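Let us practice reading a record.
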Amino acid sequence: MQRATSLENRLDAWAHRILRDAPERGPRAVFIECAVFVVKQAWACIFGASLLVVIVAARLWYPSDAAVAPNDALTIAAVLVQLAMLVFRLESGRELWVIVLFHITGTVMELFKTDVGSWAYAADGILRIGGVPLFSGFMYAAVGSYMVRVYRLFDLGFTRYPRRWVTAVLAVAIYLNFFAHHWWWDARWVLLAGVVLVWLPTIMHARVWRRTIRLPLLAVFGGVAVFIYLAENIATWAGAWAYPDQVEGWQPVSLSKLSSWFLLMIISVVLVAWVYPPRAPARVLQG
């Protein structure tokens, strides 16, 4: 089992005291397992959810004549959220390395993508690199934060997980394709086929509370990509950035972005796997 933070250990002990007399069977038991699953997922999303709340709040209530530009205010808020995650023991130092690395890889891609016109940010503020406000990297960090937290909170185990060097090669190819397809053939469908081929046999075992659920890992990847896509629609509606077809007025993000988020998430999965090597589920280890 991956080590929980000190705060999470206290919350876990508190939750077990509340749930210790809960039934093991019947509708109430199923309801409790579902409720625990939702709470754990929300806890895993706390970094990304906090950023999304800040982005929406800035759209609704940030004064237009404020001395600090909106993008700078978002950057400051994102830094404060990250510091709070560490101060309140919601993330460990080990996890922070993955988040920082994903932050850097995301920012590099942002610099390139905004330069070629894939999307754009409002041209305000001083906390930026070129046309990219610094808060943008925190949105990628939020994906990395979710990945490392969900791995720990659900005590994830895997059967038939592919060799890590194979996944690393595929992740590098995915990352390079985000750049190369602008002047060369877009290999995303080949890469998607590679992801399916590599991870198709893999089953994820997630411990909720008393029960452990088993899911095809590809289905989990797809579900997370849809969730990120929905969050992206909220963020673009709030004006965090805009795609070319949203400049004249907001409209839902193209469904084609689902494949992009799916592939980008694979990069995050591979980075997490190098910090927390995928292991067999507990019952397999004991058997």
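A brief commentary: The radius of gyration is 20 Å.
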